[in-house]
Amino acid sequence: MADPVKPRSKRSGRSGGAAARRESRLRGPVVYLPNAIRNIPTYEILKQDGLEAIDDHAMGILETIGVEFRDDISAKIWADAGADVDGHRVRIPRELIRKLIATVPSEFDYHAHNPDRSVKVGGRNMIFGPAYGTPNLIDLNGVRRQATADDMRTIMKLHQVNPAIHYNGGYTLEPMDVDVPVRHLHMVESSFNTTDKPIMGSPQSAYQARDSLEMAKIVFGKDYLDKNVAMTAIFNCNSPLVWDQTQLEALRIYAAHNQAMLLSPFVLYGASSPVHILAGTAQIVAEALAGVAFTQIIRPGSRAVMGVAPMGVYMKTGSPTFGSPEVALTMYVYGQMARYYGIPWRTNGAKTGAKQEDLYAGYDSILKVYPAILGGCNLLTHCGGTLEGSLCVSLGKLAADGQQLQSFYTMLKGVRFDDMDLVLDDLAKIGPGGHFFNEDYTRENLPFLDEVQDNERFESWIATGSKTVGERGRDWCRSMLDRYEQEPPTLDEAKREELRSFVGRRETEINAGQF
C-alpha cells in the first residue's frame, strides 16, 4: 500500500553529472543493502477455507500415515513427547503439532560478526542467499571445471561485495580438492575469514554440526550462541515422509544450541510428491511441520524456518526441471501456509537446468524468483549463478543474478508519495513535449541500473567486442574482486589464529577416525 502524502520537501542542489554518478556507482565503495522490507502485498492463491483445508489434510497425514524418523533416539524423543511411535514411524496428533509449533519465533535476528551486516528473518523481512553445494564452476576464463578451495574463497569474496547477497551460503561450492570428512572445516573457516556477513554451517553429520558451532563460538564468544542466531543450516526431508538419521543427529545439535534451522522437503513434483498441486502441498507441509515441531521438543523457542525446495521432473530421466507453473503455484500456496502458522519460510531461487548463461537460464531463474518474491518468502537461497540443476555455478550468471536481486530489492520497496509535489512542479515547468533528463530530481533519483546488461546501441555493442552476458558478468566479477581487495572485511587476528588452530587439530583427529 502506498504511503500517505507527506509534507513537501526542499530540493537539494546538484551534486555532479550523470557520468560522475555512474562512475561512483560502478567504482565507489560497495553500498551494502540491509534485509529487504516488503512494502508490496503477497500474492494469495487460496482463501481462508482453502488454507484450513490444506491444514486439515496435512494434519491428517501426520496423524494417520505418519512420518518416518529413521533414528532410534529421535523416535524415542517423539514417543516421550506423546506421539504414536511404531519403530521409526511416528504418527503425531494435531493437538501436539499445534502445541509444539506455537513456540516457534515468527521473526529473528541473524547475526554477523560485523553487526552492520546482521539481518532479520521473518515477518515483512526478506533476505537473499547464494548458491549451495555445487561441485563445478564456469570460471573467470569461461572454462567449466571442478571447483577447488581457492574457487570457493573467490566466490565467497564475491558474495561479500555483492550488495544484494545478505549472507554467505555455507557450501557455496564443494571444494573437490578437499577431502569430504574435513571439507566443512575449510568452508566455515573461509566463510569467517573472507566475509563479515552472516554464514551457514554444515548439517551433514553430528560431528560436522558440532565443529561448525564450535568455530562460531570462537568468533562470537562461548555464550553468545545460547541466545543469538549466528549460524543457520539447511535440513532436507527425504520426500515422501522421511527424516533420515544423519539429518536428525545434526538437527538435534543445532536446536540445542538455539541456532536457526531451515527445514525443507526436497520436492520433485510428480516423483517425490503427487502430481496434484494441493495434495502435494499438503504432503510437504506435513513433512516440514514434523521437522519444525521436532526442533521445539529439543528446545522450545529455537528458531526454525519452514522450507521447501520444489522442482519439476523430466519424466524421461527423472532429472529436475525448473521454472514450471506447477512449481510456482506450489510456492504461492506453501508461502500462504507458512504465514497461516506464523512461521518464516524459505525456498530456492535462481536455479536452472540450462548448461550455459542462455535464454532458458534466465527464464528458469526468473520464474523461480518471481513466485518467491510475490509469495512472501523470507529467505531465498540459490541466488548466485546456479546452472545444471545445482551441479555448476557460473561466475557470469552469478553477476547477472546479483543484478536481478537488486532489481527485486527495489520492487519490494513499493511506491511512495514522497516528493510528488516536487516532481509535478517539474512537469509543469517542462510542459508538453519536454523531457526530464536534465532535472535535479532525475539525477538524484536515478532508476535502477543493471551493471551487467548492455543497453547501448547495436553498433556500440559490436565495437566493444559483442560480449555475451557471460563475458560481461565475468568482467563484473573481476571488477568486484578488485573492490574487495580495496575494502576487505576484518576479523580479529587472534580469532583467525584460533580458527586455524581448531581446523588443524580437528583435521588430525578426523583423519585418525576421531569424529
TrEMBL record:
Enzyme Commission number(s) of this protein: 2.1.1.-
Keywords: Methyltransferase, Transferase
GO function term, MF aspect, one: methyltransferase activity
GO BP terms, alphabetized: methanogenesis; methylation
Pfam families assigned to the protein according to its UniProt record, in alphabetical order: MTTB
Class of this enzyme: transferase
Region Disordered, annotated ranges: 1-22
Family label: Belongs to the trimethylamine methyltransferase family.
Protein's UniProt name: Methyltransferase
